[in-house]
Design a protein that fits this description.
Layout (H helix, E strand, L loop, with lengths): L2 H18 L7 E3 L54 E3 L4 E7 L7 H10 L5 E4 L1 H5 L2 H9 L3 E4 L12 H19 L5 E2 L8 H9 L3 E2 L4 E2 L8 H11 L5 E5 L6 H16 L3 E2 L7
Parallel strand pairs: 1-2, 3-4, 3-9, 3-10, 4-5, 6-7, 8-9
Helix pairs in contact: 2-8, 5-6, 7-8
């Protein structure tokens, strides 16, 4: 990404953070079991950025179609800040990947996860799901959790409530059609949350999920830098943010092949949230 593009996007993120008031703390979510509750505080995540797509094909037309009526999701308590840690015993961590699926990079990440029998979370964009349904179906088959990352990856703080609802609902619909279940987790693009996003997510049965360790792989800092950020940030309860789309993710693909076996050998267990009944 060119320097002026980065500066422009950074300005958007700062404006978005100012608009939403930048939440200072967030809770934890139980992963891999039942019985614990959210509520422990942790540092708020910094903003993420997403490289602009290189061609217009990335902006797909909205999915249209007709099917049986969907059951209304269970309404959740409206949070004031996103969850960014997981609870549970032992050295548990959670891996998350945003902006996909992408036919060039997502399969390699899935292959690495399968090699080590690891489950992860994928926060997908609805427009990317349409042309890559087989990858979302593979995520379901291999036990990964798929979350909602909006349809077109907009800065939510610049949209009105109706537009935010459309971005979220259409994405949940296409995930259900492809993955087999409606998503129970939502992540705001750029980490830019606002009241409407929290309220609408709760209405649609989705908890807000952020992160604790940002690889900043979207900046393409180099494979070694990405590896170092994950390994130095590893700790019980950490949620790692990476990307499997939105730009050249070659470094991300190479990095996970290095840091994942290292963390597993160090005694870490990669997990995903338990599904709410």
């Amino acid at each position: 990404m060119q320097k002026d593009q980065l500066l422009t996007r950074r300005g958007m993120l700062l404006a978005g953070a100012a608009a939403l008031g930048a939440a200072g703390t967030a809770g934890v979510v139980l992963a891999g079991g039942a019985g614990d509750s959210a509520g422990t505080t942790a540092p708020a995540p910094g903003p993420q950025a997403r490289q602009a797509p290189r061609d217009s094909a990335f902006r797909l037309q909205p999915l249209t179609g007709y099917g049986p009526p969907r059951a209304a999701p269970r309404r959740l308590k409206v949070r004031k800040e996103p969850i960014l840690q997981i609870s549970g015993r032992g050295r548990r961590m959670m891996l998350t990947f945003d902006d996909g699926p992408n036919p060039e990079y997502t399969p390699h990440i899935l292959d690495t996860l399968a090699k080590y029998d690891v489950r992860a979370m994928f926060f997908v964009c609805g427009e990317c799901v349409v042309d890559n349904r087989e990858l979302v179906a593979r995520m379901a088959d291999e036990g990964h959790v798929v979350g909602n990352h909006t349809w077109t990856h907009p800065l939510l703080t610049t949209l009105n409530r109706k537009q935010i609802r459309s971005e979220m609902k259409r994405t949940s619909d296409v995930i259900e059609d492809t993955y087999g279940e409606r998503p129970q987790w939502f992540r705001a693009p750029y980490g830019a949350w606002n009241r409407a996003a929290f309220q609408l997510g709760a209405e649609m049965g989705m908890e807000p999920m952020a992160w604790t360790v940002d690889t900043t792989d979207w900046m393409e800092p180099g494979t070694d830098t990405i590896v170092d950020r994950v390994e130095s940030g590893a700790a019980p309860g950490v949620v790692v943010l990476s990307h499997d789309a939105g730009g050249d993710r070659t470094q991300t693909v190479e990095a996970i092949r290095e840091w994942l076996p290292h963390l597993l050998d160090s005694g870490y267990h990669m997990t995903v949230p338990s599904r709410r009944v």
